[in-house]
């Protein structure tokens, strides 16, 4: 049986002696709470979230399209020293990723150096040749990055994946904190917890800093695909928190090489678009002609440098799972530094030797689609039946270049309040990294938790929940 690193205790017995130092104050409080009180507080949180409308759309779910993301009332706590290491490593990683995307669309030095095979770029579904040679504000492509971090082994941190297109989840980070402060104000009096409520201000400052040249007081909007998108709550939430307009493609138009927003007072020029719409749907004249979500002519304005899109078109070329194995090489190539945060060892099934190993060890591995997301299109070998493994083997043989494989990590666990009481459940962490004139982060991120016993899949679309993430200030 795999031994999992427990975030709260140094061994399997939850006693005062085994509790890790940064959890001791919380453990002392938790020991005094009755199961009845915890149950009441959990029900209170669920009711409040439902009233506010904090839901997640699950596509293809027969039970209904809207689902409440379960919220766990036991926080994930990170000591200041650990957070400092994570923050330094994440800044390093996102800096290198931005340099890589710029290089891909300009000099392509990393390809010329033989570090990444050219077909990995040019045949990548997220590569946008329309961006070749295009200059973007401050050379920033991934203005908002959500980097998934896991802890495994003896407690080492690993980057599981980089989300650079339209990363979501930050609204749940903010709402989880507000909920914990409302339910348990006494905990925030006893623990020095770094605040996260300034994130919308950080995001707004970041977006202002990358406005087109010569624009001192930019008009910023959040562009959403609409209310049926799975993350629509977040789009509306962030627009409201930043004090900017929430728009759909139909609210914008292009005229005289500029983007305008329709208002009751007439057209108003837009300078920065925080877009939560995928590349393919942004401009029907340049990408999918059947898209009703985009703005005709938007790409031409963007290429002329007269509007900033966050994140940039073509950013997805760096968060594809087939590019992930090269990120540590990017750090060495662009920054001449050793990576602070490690990747998970990865087998690229397009390589014959890696494919052979993967096929021989399917029951032990996690196999993922290179363009997959949300926990879909993947095989978790140890949790799969023989038939599921054999079915996946056929998919893998039919299109090996579409998959990568990784060892099944023993993800760290954190005490979680479930129906049977307090029990360990596996977690990950998605910190949000903002790149503009500087690179900044709110301390913490979104901790996702796999609520099913033994499950390693934390995605909301697969039944996962969330926890408040506390970074201690000392």
TrEMBL record:
Domain Circularly permuted ATP-grasp type: 75-450
Domain of life: Bacteria
Matches recorded under InterPro entries: ATP-dep_Glu-Cys_Ligase-2, CP_ATPgrasp_2, UCP005522
UniProt cross-references to PANTHER family, sorted A to Z: BLR5612 PROTEIN, SLL1039 PROTEIN
The protein's name: Circularly permuted type 2 ATP-grasp protein
Organism the protein comes from: Undibacterium rivi
């Amino acid at each position: 049986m795999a031994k999992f690193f427990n975030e709260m205790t140094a061994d399997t017995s939850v006693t005062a002696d085994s509790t890790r130092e940064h959890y001791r104050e919380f453990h002392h409080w938790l020991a005094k709470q009755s199961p009845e009180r915890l149950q009441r507080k959990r029900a209170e949180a669920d009711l409040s979230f439902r009233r506010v409308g904090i839901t997640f759309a699950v596509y293809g779910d027969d039970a209904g399209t809207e689902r409440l993301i379960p919220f766990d009332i036991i926080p994930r706590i990170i000591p200041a020293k650990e957070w400092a290491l994570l923050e330094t490593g994440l800044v390093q990683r996102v800096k290198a990723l931005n340099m890589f995307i710029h290089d891909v669309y300009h000099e392509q030095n990393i390809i010329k150096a033989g570090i990444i095979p050219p077909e990995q770029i040019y045949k990548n579904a997220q590569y946008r040749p329309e961006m070749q040679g295009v200059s973007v504000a401050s050379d920033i492509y991934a203005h908002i990055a959500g980097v998934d971090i896991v802890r495994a082994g003896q407690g080492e941190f690993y980057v599981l994946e980089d989300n650079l297109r339209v990363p979501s989840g930050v609204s749940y980070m903010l709402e989880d904190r507000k909920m914990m402060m409302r339910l348990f104000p006494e905990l925030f009096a006893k623990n020095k917890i770094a605040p996260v409520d300034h994130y919308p201000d950080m995001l707004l400052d970041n977006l202002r800093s990358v406005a087109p040249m010569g624009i001192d007081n930019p008009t910023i909007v959040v562009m959403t695909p609409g209310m049926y998108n799975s993350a629509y709550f977040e789009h509306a939430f962030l627009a409201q928190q930043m004090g900017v307009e929430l728009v759909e493609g139909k609210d914008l138009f292009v005229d005289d090489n500029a983007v305008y927003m329709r208002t009751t007072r007439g057209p108003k020029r837009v300078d920065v678009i925080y877009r939560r719409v995928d590349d393919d749907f942004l401009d029907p004249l340049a990408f999918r002609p059947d898209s009703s979500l985009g703005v005709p002519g938007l790409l031409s304005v963007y290429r002329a440098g007269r509007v900033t899109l966050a994140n940039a078109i073509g950013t997805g070329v760096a968060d594809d799972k087939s590019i992930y194995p090269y990120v540590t090489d990017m750090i060495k190539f662009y920054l001449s530094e050793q990576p602070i945060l490690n990747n998970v060892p990865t087998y690229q099934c397009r390589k014959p030797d890696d494919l052979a190993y993967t096929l021989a060890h399917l029951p032990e591995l996690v196999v993922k689609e290179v363009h997959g997301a949300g926990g879909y299109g993947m095989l978790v070998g140890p949790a799969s039946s023989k038939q599921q493994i054999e079915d996946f083997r056929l998919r893998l043989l039919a299109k090996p270049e579409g998959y990568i494989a990784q060892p099944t990590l023993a993800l760290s666990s954190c005490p979680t309040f479930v129906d049977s009481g307090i029990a360990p459940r596996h977690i990950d962490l998605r910190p949000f990294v903002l790149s503009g004139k500087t690179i900044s982060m709110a301390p913490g991120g979104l901790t996702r938790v796999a609520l099913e016993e033994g499950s390693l899949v934390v995605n909301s679309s697969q039944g996962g929940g969330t926890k408040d993430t506390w970074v201690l200030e000392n």
